[in-house]
Amino acid sequence: MVNTWSIRRFRILVLIVSVTGMSQGLLIPLLTTLLEEQGVSSSSNGLSAAALYAGILVMSPICAPVVKRIGYKRSIIIGLLITTAAVILFPMFTGIWIWSLLRFWVGVGDSLLHYATQLWITATAPLDERGKRISQYGFCYGLGFGIGPLGMNLLELGFIVPFMVLAVVLGITLYFTRLLDSGRPDLDGTEEKRKESVKLWKIYRIALIALCPPILYGLLETALAGNFPVYGLREGISKAWISVLISAFVWGSLAFQVPLGILGDKIGRKNILIIACFLGSVGMAVMPLLVSNVLLLFIAFLLVGGVVGSLFSLGLAYLTDLLPARYLPAANAVASVHFSVGSILGPYVGGVLIQWIGGNALFYFLSIALASFVLLAIFYRVSAETATEIQKTSITN
């Protein structure tokens, strides 16, 4: 039945999320590159790239009632249909405004199917396997996001080819979605609302350090995917190398994700976050010095992606260390909003910096953002009284 665990269903769900990761990984740098070639300013280009994550942010509060009303399978199918339709329409139009609107709808579709797939897995996975299955889910999304930029090389075969190949892959995914069973989540809305009536200021007060990494990861991921093609083209880097470099950042994060998680268990997640952001800050500051050598730049993207590519998952894990279970649903929702906000700000701020200061400013901006977190994490303190108060509130409620 739909509310029991099924390994067959799980495999289909991770296939779906890997394909949606691939679509995001391709569309962000591909459209940025094409708009750069059309002479669009870097600030407007970055704002257009942010439209996808604006769609995710707008759709996020709507996902729960939609999935509850129409069920998992239909929600996933609708999300895929919205994304596929937008991908098909991209090559039929040119211009930043229509592409920004289509990007927004890709974000809406992705948000719906991500929510449905995540909830379906977490609601049905055996308790002793839940962490492993969510990790596999995240790995598959990251794998798809890392493969996506390589599709930019299909431009050599024609402007329409990358979009049509992506549309075909999404169509095949839709077929596999038909093999899923149907059902709706078992949610008692009234009880859930009562349980989640926690005060956000308490969450921020005690878990501020854990809530910052999702913003940073959103900034890093989208600024690089959405702005680096502009910077790279202006520095004379080929489209093929730009696609490889963006993918290398994701490959590094996948390779280092498990080792960093294990290391965080041993030395503390706050410590590993400080170390990762410090190394990432240094790496970002060095990037402009390597732009003349793509091989060194590739190694730098791989290593920097490795140390900062797990910020989101490490931040969520650190939340569980800091907060009682009652606060975690609201805290995770806040973390998701932070990621969306960072993803919207990243390409726009990066584009403005490239336009008015120069390409190197993109990397210095990301370096300063990471260094600022290091300072905050070192000096920010939560009083023992505040921590005790939250723990008592959790017990009494």
UniProtKB/TrEMBL annotation:
CDD domains from the UniProt entry: MFS_YcaD_like (cd17477)
Record domain Major facilitator superfamily (MFS) profile: where: 9-385
Main location: membrane
InterPro entries named among the record's database cross-references: MFS, MFS_dom, MFS_trans_sf, MFS_YcaD-like, TM_effector
Transmembrane segments: 12-35, 47-67, 76-98, 157-176, 203-220, 240-260, 272-291, 297-319, 331-357, 363-382
Subcellular location: Cell membrane
Keyword tags: Cell membrane, Membrane, Transmembrane, Transmembrane helix, Transport
PANTHER family found in the cross-reference section: TRANSPORTER MFS SUPERFAMILY
Protein name: MFS transporter
